[in-house]
């Protein structure tokens, strides 16, 4: 059970990191274009 929870938390953290990167890239490109 605990192992499953750890794996799930890692997956959630990875998703959050990817979303944050996407937002940063979006903001960066929009600021460069403007």
From TrEMBL:
The keyword Transferase applies. It is an enzyme of class 2 (transferase). Keywords: Kinase, Transferase. Its EC number is 2.7.2.11. GO terms for molecular function: glutamate 5-kinase activity. This is Gamma-glutamyl kinase. The lineage of its organism: Bacteria, Bacillati, Bacillota, Bacilli, Bacillales.
């Amino acid at each position: 059970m605990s192992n499953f929870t750890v794996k799930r938390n890692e997956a959630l953290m990875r998703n959050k990191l990817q979303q944050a990167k996407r937002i940063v890239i979006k903001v960066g490109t929009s600021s460069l274009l403007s």
